[in-house]
Amino acid sequence: MSVPLPVVPRTAQELDDPTAAVCLFRSLADPARLAILRHLALGEHRVVDLTGRLGLAQSTVSAHLACLRDCGLVTSRSEGRSSVHSLARPELMELLNAAERVLAATGSAVSLCPVYGEERAR
What we know:
The chain has a 3-stranded antiparallel beta sheet. Helix content is about 55%, strand content about 10%. It has helices at about 10-15, 20-25, 30-40, 45-55, 60-70, 90-105, 110, 120; strands spanning about 45, 75-80, 80-85.
């Protein structure tokens, strides 16, 4: 059984300025980055591991890992001639799991949204 995390008090300024949250969600708004994060939730991976599992080019995986690392969501460490990547913040998976619950509760409403839905993404 998981224990709920304490609620961190927020200042009025933080609540009025959603910039950081918007940037976080933008960093997650790519199917490849989400797939990479899901694999990293299972444990550490090298780029070659991720390319094989996701069917993406090495350059694509490396670019997305750099983005996620720059956002503070992924860390890496050297191991021999390669780097091993892992989640920097395990709370990220709690966020993604909560998003899946919201999506399950709203059905296809987000997909049908005229502004952000699937038709708009094409």
